[in-house]
Amino acid sequence: MSIVDKGKEAVQGIAQAVVKKAVELAPGALLPGGRPDPLIRRQHGHIGKPVSRVDGPLKVRGAAPFAAEVALDGMVYAALAYSTIARGRIAAIDTALAEAAPGVVLVMTHRNAPRLNPPPRFLTGDKAAAGDDSPIMQDDRVRWNGQPVALVLADSQEQADHARSLIRVTYAEEPAATSLPTADGCEVGTFMGEPLRAVVGDADAAFAAAPNKVEAVYRTPRHNHNALELHAATLVWRGDELFVHDATQAVAHTAWSLAQIFGLEEAQVHVGSPFVGGGFGGKGLWPHQILAAAAARLAGRPVRIVLSREGVYRAVGGRSPTEQRVALGADADGRLTAIIHRGVTPKTRHSPMPEPFILPTQSAYAAETIALEVQTCYLDMVANTFMRAPGEAVGTVALECAIDELAERLGMDPIELRILNEPDKDPISGRPFSSRNIVAAYRAGAERFGWDRRNPVPRSRREGEWLVGMGCATATYPYHRMPGGAARITLDAAGRARIDAAAHEMGMGTATTHTQVAADRLGLPLEAVSVRYGDSSLPGVILAGGSQQTASVGLSVMMAHQELVGELLKLAGNDSPLAGLGVDEVESADAGLRKRDEPDRFESYASILARSGRSELAVESSAPMPLETMHWSMHSYGAMFCEVRVNAVTGETRVSRFLGSFDCGRIINPKTAASQFRGGIIMGLGLALMEETQFDERNGRIMTRNLSDYHLPVHLDVPEIDVIWTDIPDPHAPMGARGIGEIGITGTGAAVANAIHNATGRRVRDFPITLDKLL
Amino acid sequence: MGITVNGTAVELPDDPRVSLLDLLRDGLHLSGTKKGCDQGACGACTVLVDGQRILSCLALAVQYEGRSVTTIEGLGADGALHPLQQAFIEHDGFQCGYCTPGQICSAVAMIEELRRGVPSHLTVDLAAAAIPCSRDELRERMSGNLCRCGAHNGIMDAIATTYPAETHPGAAE
Which residues are A218's β-sheet partners? Predict the structure, then answer.
């Protein structure tokens, strides 16, 4: 055989192996006719146990290291100055006093900043991370009110802050688009490359002809994430390599994007982020990390940058406001004949997406006709971005209030109206649902909450000066699993396993749940499993977003485990009780492998490694493309129940009871899952009653720039929140689990608003529902 | 004379602008005390000064000469967790963990306030010898400590189970 033939054979062999692998992996768990993840059936393992957080002891001691808590030798501190106009030019910038101030190491402006490539805007590439792709400190242009215009480095934070206050900027102001009437153009928005528009039949005609109808406009304001941890980075250049201790939901994305910006190879940028003090969509790549890295290079010193709370409002975007018109038409029985959900939301030319508020309506109800559309208008403002359940959080406010209004018009119970219009397949895509048990969630929730005690006549229950009412609404958030999942399993000589994946922990319990999942996958006790994450050097491109991290890492570990079993069988050889067995004939159990139908044929991992003279065995694998979402319409669901007390004298609303009844597939850890559900619901209470980023439409400046003016729910605003779930595994999701991180904020706003209507007879469609709107 | 931090004498900073928070975090590398707003609005920087809770971001370090400061790092005895720290783990009184040290320090001092009969905005009878401690009374007293992850229920459960005598579990909802 010639070398050429040998080469051909090798290539063919590789090609066959690739095809075989694709066939093996792709149908595996998730495609039609495939075998569901075997862990779905496992009932007595670690999955489903309320395991306390493995990083709990670190966190309660304050010992979990956050981005601003890494100290580097020779480190200097950064402070930023922000523009005070929305659009124009920097005519002059006087930095002389700042440069002469004590302790100052560098003052950087567009005049001396290093030349940088534009930040890769999130969603424009598989590792693009930036929330804003406008050039940063590269020219004299001002693009939003609050844009960083100068950066000071000094030996202490106090010195940097003082020097920053000495910078004088003169602007040549230009007309800016800072309100919808002055917008710089409007068009149909796009999200992930798709237009935010859907049409089934002629909804306008069907609505006009409907015997029962409601139509209203709902408004939601700007929101900010307000993670308690301020955005921060501590970074250093070592030669041409950049090391960043960041607070990010996207370590791999950030490393690649910083490399693009600074003209480096991806491998020259190292991003670590072991603990993130809350993200909610806001902890991505924003100007501060880029400017700090540029300044560190210019000054030749390690830099720590911590945005002030005002700085977070100036330089990091939040959720855009929406104005949504919902029109529902129904026949005499209450069956929907038309759903119209259209509206407008502002974005910037440099942000990744318009707030996609029609998303929840796409899969919500069976209706003969549907018309959905998001118009987006361009403003000069800080780039709007993803915030917990982008689209669904505010879209369900409009849709689920409208459903409640229709139920009242029809004289129907709002739960029965929803159940009547329950779709049997996805109303837009026509795909079957992977698993949808929303009716069961409503039934269980209604019973537990005592829904039958609700008087459907508004303003009919009064206790002293308090008006009491109940409301409900549907929660929904899609199952996502983004491309790029990967993980490595390393077994050591003692039979312990370490999972490595470039994932993130910002409160979800990442290390805890994946310890549980991997322990079940590998047949190990929890103590024998550790999880490394939060570093761009680890496998995978795994966004902590879209409630997808668990699915992404979970499937990657499942794939790696399959390969690991194959490697172990090879190593086991002919002297093992496992000799001659194939991958499909064995399973992991009791810290080793055993034959499925002959459990006595067993050898431990430690024994296999010892006999083959290996100190460890590492296998890395990638998750296949997310084909499951092409075959099924996949969503998490919830039925939200709220009881409010509204003071008839002051208009003050107190949420007295809340129940979330969820259908999100298998729940991996009831303790951490309950916390995520509650956390989403509490953010939803804020959305309903108090949260609003006030924006001055005259000059594009955010006025609520601190935690005193932007009201978050505090302890006294938060009642005991009850959460229950169906725990019905989704046969097409890894571990049977769909996402749970975002769904809690969906439906909550409408449930509160509907309860307020039931209590008071007042229908407030302008959020948040502050007391002035109820007087 | 300097400040005593967790039982150790430390020198005052040269720069009088340095807040107690920045002294702890940047000067002493005691980063368990968190900076969430630097404006006294979030409570993440709560520490104990001679047993009373204060916001260390609103305190200039030089003002605390001769005082004894306890941070989250000094709460447990001999490296063991304080019972409230253990209860936070058990009741999942946190998610990201950033507001947690402030919540815990605040709660420890809040219980002392209850023991001393210090009223809150919700206390109806200011002259009462013992304050009836409903769950709302507890909530009011902890409302200066923000939590964005939404761990409020777990935090309340952790406090109530750690201090059953002071928090009158019978009065809980």
Answer: A324
CA–CA dist A30, A680 (Å, integer): 28
CATH 1.10.390.10 fits B83-171, yes or no: no
Active site residues of A: 742
pLDDT recorded at residue A28: 53
B62 interface with A at CB cutoff 8 Å:
no
Q: Which of B153, B159, B162, B167 should be substituted to probe chain A, the one whose Cβ sees the most A Cβ atoms within 10 Å?
A: B153
Per-residue pLDDT of A238-294, as tens digits, reads: 999 999 999 999 999 999 999 999 999 999 999 999 999 999 999 999 999 999 999
Residue A23 banded pLDDT, cuts 50, 70, 90: very low
Q: Which of A280, A706, A717 sits opposite B37 (nearest CB)?
A: A706
Residue B25 contacts A, CB cutoff 8 Å: yes
Question: Which pLDDT score is estimated for A34?
Answer: 73
Instruction: Say if A66-390 and A483-624 have the same CATH topology.
Output: no
B73 close contact with A: CB closer than 8 A: yes
Domain boundaries of chain A, sorted by first residue: 66-390, 413-480+630-774, 483-624
Is residue B170 over pLDDT 50?
Answer: no
Pairwise CB contact (< 8 Å): A508 & B95: yes
Domain ranges of chain B: 3-74, 83-171
Q: Summarize the confidence of residues A556-568 as an average pLDDT.
A: 97
Residues of B with Cβ-Cβ distance to A712 under 8 angstroms: 146, 148
Is the confidence at residue A514, as pLDDT, over 70? yes
Does the pLDDT value for residue A617 go beyond 70? yes
**pLDDT higher than threshold 80 for residue A21:** no
Out of B92, B143, B149, whose CB is closest to A671? B92
Residue A339 in tokens: 């759903």
Q: Reply yes or no on whether the pLDDT at A422 is more than 70.
A: yes
Phi-psi region of A151 (alpha: psi -120 to 50; beta: other; left: phi over 0): beta
> How close does chain A come to B17, measured CA to CA in Å?
7
Q: Does B39 touch chain A (CB under 8 A)?
A: yes
The alpha-carbon gap from B106 to the nearest alpha carbon of chain A, in Å, equals 13
Residues in chain B within 8 Å Cβ distance of A676: 95
Would the CB atoms of A55 and B44 count as touching at under 8 Å?
A: no
Q: How far apart are CA B138 and CA B173, in angstroms?
A: 12
Which fold is adopted by the domain A483-624? Aldehyde Oxidoreductase; domain 4 (3.30.365)
Mean residue pLDDT across chain A: 95
Rg of chain B on CA atoms, in Å: 16
Residues of A in Cβ contact (< 8 Å) with B88: 56, 60
CA distance B5 to chain A (A): 16
Instruction: State the smallest CA–CA distance between residue B131 and chain A in angstroms.
Output: 17
What average pLDDT is seen over chain B? 94
B140 vs A: CB within 8 A: yes
Task: Tell the CATH topology of A66-390.
Answer: Aldehyde Oxidoreductase; domain 3 (3.90.1170)
Q: How confident is the model at residue B131 (pLDDT cuts 50, 70, 90)?
A: confident
Q: What is the mean pLDDT of residues A467-477?
A: 98
Contacts of B43 in chain A (CB under 8 A): none
Q: What is the DSSP letter of A130?
A: B
Chains A and B form CB pairs within 8 A to the count of: 188
CB within 8 Å of B80: residues ≥ 6 apart: none
Give me the architecture of the A413-480+630-774 domain, per CATH: 2-Layer Sandwich (3.30)
Q: Is B115 on the interface with A (CB under 8 A)?
A: no
User: Which two structure tokens, joined as six digits, stand for A1?
Assistant: 């055989």
Q: Tokens for A236, please give them.
A: 């250093």
On whether the CB atoms of residues A743 and A679 are closer than 8 A, the answer is no
Give the helix ranges, DSSP H, for A76-191: 96-100, 157-165
Residue closest to B55 by CA, chosen among B16, B29, B24, B21: B21
- pLDDT, residue A5, reads 46
Q: Please give the class, per CATH, of domain B3-74.
A: alpha beta
- Going by C-alpha positions, the residue among A492, A628, A515 that lies closest to residue A564 is A492
